[in-house]
């Protein structure tokens, strides 16, 4: 008998790409909540993922919120609408202080019904095929097909995840401290108007129907566009005390009304921050992701305000 060959798992479909991102995002949210002290560290368990030590919050309601939030993100990713996913940390007065951004803008854009279709990743290092008789690529009525790479083994992706989590665990020393009693939210940003599917449909359709889990984000977390058109920005998803954000504000219909005299648009006020800290890029076949952290402009003031309140409490009664 000829022994069967065991092939390692590979990223060969868009659904496999999305499933890996969802699993990664779940671990990343728990890790960030631990590293930024959003919950007491004693409420986290030690665990292992991707053959690397990680932390997981053990409170059932926190775990359920994260599970539901990631499931909502995954549903939109499978539709191909998402450009970025962000974990946003807010001060007790709801000012955005930090934004952990996971950019999936370079994920494949495919028709909605082809999530299980095998992906073909072009080889950037291979010469373009030509019609010479010596070529080994197959030809079609449209000419020779471009060279493609074999599916990326999951072990390649997981090794990069380990490096990313190692970076997240040391990132605290690069970020200024947060005030106590912060909250958090999960957000998605949709593709802009220029991104189309292979069939010509607009990719960034907003998930804001009456029965959707997502709600529009505040203007300060929505990117501006030329001409002040309603953007495919952020919207939020109300799954618990910490709202998730994603989708689009206004589904891109029409233009904004003229602002009253003296009014300054708040769109994009909290995006970009005063400092951006790169975390890591990840690339394995069709799985291409960039991760960075943005520190908000109001972070220093929020920390000072928390310190003043603490001093007033300590000196209470005087």
What does this structure look like?
Helices cover 24% and strands 24% of the residues. With 318 residues, the protein is an alpha+beta fold. Helix 1 runs antiparallel to helix 2 and helix 1 runs parallel beside helix 3. The strands form five sheets. Strands 4, 5, 11, 12, 13, 14, 15 and 16 form an eight-stranded mixed sheet that branches. Strands 1-10 form a two-stranded antiparallel ribbon. A two-stranded antiparallel ribbon has the order 2-3. It starts with 9 loop residues before the first strand and ends with a helix. It is globular, with a radius of gyration of 22 Å. The relative contact order is 0.18.
Approximate helicity band = 10-25%
Rg, rounded, reads: 22 Å
Number of strands: 16
Number of helices: 4
Provide key terms for this protein:
318 residues; alpha+beta; eight-stranded mixed β-sheet; two-stranded antiparallel sheet; 16 strands; 24% strand
Question: What secondary-structure arrangement, pairings included, does this model have?
Answer:
Layout: E1 10-11, H1 14-35, E2 44-49, E3 52-57, H2 60-79, E4 82-90, E5 96-103, E6 121-122, E7 139-140, E8 143-144, E9 148-149, E10 152-153, H3 154-170, E11 183-190, E12 214-216, E13 234-237, E14 244-245, E15 275-284, E16 287-295, H4 299-314
Parallel strand pairs: 11-14
Antiparallel strand pairs: 1-10, 2-3, 4-5, 4-11, 5-16, 6-9, 7-8, 11-13, 12-13, 13-14, 15-16
Helix pairs in contact: 1-2, 1-3
């Amino acid at each position: 008998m000829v022994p069967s060959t065991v092939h390692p798992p590979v990223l060969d479909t868009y659904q496999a790409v999305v499933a890996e991102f969802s699993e990664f995002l779940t671990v990343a949210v728990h890790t960030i909540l631990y590293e930024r002290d959003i919950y007491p560290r004693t409420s986290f368990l030690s665990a292992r993922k991707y053959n690397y030590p990680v932390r997981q919050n053990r409170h059932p309601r926190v775990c359920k919120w994260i599970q539901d939030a990631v499931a909502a993100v995954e549903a939109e990713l499978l539709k191909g609408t998402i450009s970025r996913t962000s974990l946003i940390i807010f001060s007790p007065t709801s000012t955005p202080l930090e934004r952990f951004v996971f950019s999936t803008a370079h994920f494949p854009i495919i028709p909605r019904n082809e999530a299980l279709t095998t992906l073909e990743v072009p080889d950037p290092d291979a010469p373009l095929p030509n019609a010479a008789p010596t070529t080994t690529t197959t030809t079609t009525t449209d000419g020779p097909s471009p060279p493609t790479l074999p599916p990326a083994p999951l072990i390649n992706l997981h090794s990069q995840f380990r490096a990313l989590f190692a970076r997240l665990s040391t990132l605290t020393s690069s970020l200024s401290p947060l005030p106590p009693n912060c909250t958090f939210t999960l957000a998605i940003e949709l593709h802009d108007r220029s991104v189309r599917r292979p069939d010509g449909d607009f990719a960034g359709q907003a998930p804001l129907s009456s029965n959707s889990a997502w709600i529009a984000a505040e203007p300060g977390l929505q990117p501006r566009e030329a001409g002040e058109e309603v953007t495919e920005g952020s919207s939020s998803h109300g799954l618990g005390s910490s709202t998730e954000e994603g989708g689009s504000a206004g589904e891109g219909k029409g233009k904004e009304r003229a602002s009253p005299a003296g009014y300054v648009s708040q769109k994009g006020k909290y995006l970009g921050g005063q400092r951006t800290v790169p975390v890591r890029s990840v690339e394995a076949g069709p799985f291409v992701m960039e991760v960075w952290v943005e520190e908000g402009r109001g972070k220093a003031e929020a920390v000072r305000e928390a310190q003043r309140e603490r001093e007033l409490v300590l000196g209470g009664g005087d």
